[in-house]
Structure to design on (567 residues):
């Protein structure tokens, strides 16, 4: 009988590690027998029965599981349900997610500001440099003028990565992004040394992940006012550009008001960078010291200006031009204090940082996001268990308990979920940038695995990579350039404007967002539940934009799983 692709079969479109769990989800009614076959459907390599029906707690739809974990043979296969159809082909092999890990780190290269991307490194997506002139003559916005930098001051603030589908550069979002990439290096150094992305710096002595991070770190350093140590919240146009290529986006750029969240995120990343680049002093003379000095100065500025939050709507009433680009506004900097204190403490071993901030104000373990960085500090304290001072050591049991407590909460009841993933147990997971919720849950689980060596956390982390690569209620692989049903039309200016059908590869789409229709007003949403509220249309910036702070935890998750080869 004729068989065709059955969209009801959802799985990781890339594939599976030989020893790891292998699951496909079959949505709705279907026959109960399944097979795994070669892509020509001729050779059956596995036969099984679907599980009992499970109800998706968010959409109410039903699904069953095809579990073929027992199949451990390397090869390319499909899941076949005679009478229904078959899945996309996938591969079983070691290193199966290596290409995704490499691709998602390479995604940052495509976001680089100030340099052209030659064909040698960027292939079809080669393009001229953007913002060369503009970022060399950045104006000090009226909200940012200070004694050291009066009105009319022009600064040079090149490099960095474009934040997302837009061309602005935001310190808060750069902070969590760079911190997450640097953490992969700190957690898995040998793996990172073999992790090659074919960038111009690939031949030098630094691992590519450090070279890529440096591209942004050097920009961040320019965002500190040398006069007082404060850090501008962002470098931006007054309003968003049209859908043009970077070199055609030539509007005036400004640095805006300094903020306490920017200063503390900056301090955290610079403190972390300082200890990471220390051993590379021969290649990068003085960099580690400069980073630490910058971190301490930003910290001191924050101590003097603890209430200076960035409030764009308030500023808009006062200044001309009004700036309406991404706010990355935050009403509460207590988590930024924790992150900065933890990084400065670990780098300097100076107890003062540990004591200045209440590192454990309560038992809450909020998942990291650009607005919530407490756990980045906890991950660092956990990572450096062996070298903590007695003060830090005393709190370590509590830290470990809280981190494993979070992981236990994440893995609870996953087996009852229709999609068998950690992601999506509640509709609250489906916010703007939900893909980063999935990725950051995965990172938290990897941290718990590192603390306990308990494989159940590693297995659970893998379920969220499966989610991002296709085992989800939309059926999309959310990483551009990967899988058989990839996102093709992200809200990403170069991908829209370059005239090439395929989007720039290695970028993670924001993913389903229950509120997207009212946030971006893009036409075409038909879903009735949050887990499906996604359209692969470039107008859908609330469900289908890309962003550096979503890519970074994907790099971490895919990289860590590769380093650990989950089983
Ligand atoms: O977390 C709350 C949740 O508790 C609540 O139930 C829900 C109800 O609306 O909202 C959730 O907050 C949302 C938040 O994203 C979640 O992270 C806000 O509504 C939503 O407005 C907010 O969106 C932010 C968006 O900018 C608009 O400000 C995104 O986080 C943020 O990633 C995004 O960032 C933009 C930059 O501004 C500009 N550059 C592109 C970048 C990516 O889209
Ligand atoms: O392109 C912008 C995207 O990066 C932001 O996430 C989003 C929300 O702030 O806004 C996008 O810009 C839109 C603007 O807000 C409204 N006019 C249409 C713009 C997209 O073309």
């Amino acid at each position: 009988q004729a068989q065709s692709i059955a969209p009801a079969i959802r799985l990781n479109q890339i594939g599976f590690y030989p020893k790891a769990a292998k699951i496909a989800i079959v949505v709705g009614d279907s026959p109960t027998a399944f097979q795994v076959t070669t892509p020509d459907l001729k050779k059956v390599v596995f036969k099984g029965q679907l599980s009992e029906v499970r109800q998706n707690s968010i959409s109410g739809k039903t699904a069953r599981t095809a579990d073929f974990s027992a199949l451990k043979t390397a090869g390319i296969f499909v899941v076949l349900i005679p009478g229904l159809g078959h899945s996309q082909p996938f591969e079983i092999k070691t290193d199966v997610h290596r290409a995704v890990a490499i691709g998602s780190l390479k995604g940052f290269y495509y976001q680089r500001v100030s340099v052209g991307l030659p064909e040698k490194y960027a292939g079809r997506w080669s393009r001229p440099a953007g913002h060369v002139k503009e970022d060399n003559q950045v104006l000090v916005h009226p909200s940012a003028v200070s004694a050291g930098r009066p009105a009319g001051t022009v600064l040079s603030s090149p490099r960095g990565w474009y934040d997302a589908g837009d061309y602005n550069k935001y310190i808060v979002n750069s902070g969590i992004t760079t911190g997450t990439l640097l953490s992969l290096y700190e957690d898995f150094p040998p793996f990172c040394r073999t992790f090659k992305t074919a960038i111009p710096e690939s031949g030098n002595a630094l691992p590519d992940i450090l070279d890529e991070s440096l591209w942004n770190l050097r920009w961040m350093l320019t965002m500190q006012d040398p006069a007082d140590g404060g850090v501008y919240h962002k470098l931006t146009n007054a309003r968003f550009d049209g859908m043009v290529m970077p070199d055609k986006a030539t509007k005036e750029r400004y640095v805006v008001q300094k903020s306490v969240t920017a200063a503390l995120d900056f301090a955290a990343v610079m403190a972390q960078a300082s200890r990471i680049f220390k051993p590379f002093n021969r290649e990068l003379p003085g960099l580690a010291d400069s980073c630490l000095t910058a971190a301490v100065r930003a910290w001191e500025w924050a101590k003097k200006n603890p209430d200076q939050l960035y409030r764009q709507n308030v500023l808009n009433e006062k200044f001309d031009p009004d700036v309406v680009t991404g706010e990355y506004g935050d009403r509460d900097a207590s988590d930024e204090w924790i992150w900065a204190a933890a990084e400065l403490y670990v780098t300097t071993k100076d107890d003062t940082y540990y004591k200045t901030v209440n590192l454990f104000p309560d038992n809450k373990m909020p998942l990291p996001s650009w607005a919530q960085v407490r756990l980045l500090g906890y991950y660092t304290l956990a990572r450096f268990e062996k070298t903590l001072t007695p003060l830090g050591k005393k709190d370590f049991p509590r830290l470990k308990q809280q981190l494993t407590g979070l992981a236990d909460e994440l893995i609870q009841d996953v087996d009852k979920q229709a999609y068998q993933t950690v992601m999506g147990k509640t509709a609250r997971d489906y916010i703007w940038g939900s893909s980063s919720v999935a990725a950051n849950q995965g990172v938290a689980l990897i941290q718990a695995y590192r603390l306990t060596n308990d494989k159940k956390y590693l297995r659970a982390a893998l379920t969220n990579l499966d989610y991002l690569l296709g085992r989800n209620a939309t059926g999309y692989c959310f990483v551009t350039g990967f899988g058989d049903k990839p996102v093709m039309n992200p809200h990403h200016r170069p991908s829209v404007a370059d005239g090439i059908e395929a989007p720039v590869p290695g970028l993670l789409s924001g993913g389903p967002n229950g509120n997207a229709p009212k946030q971006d007003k893009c036409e075409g949403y038909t879903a009735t539940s949050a887990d499906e509220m996604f359209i692969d249309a470039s107008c859908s910036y609330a469900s289908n934009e890309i962003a550096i702070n979503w890519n970074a935890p994907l790099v971490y998750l895919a990289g860590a799983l590769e380093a650990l080869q989950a089983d």
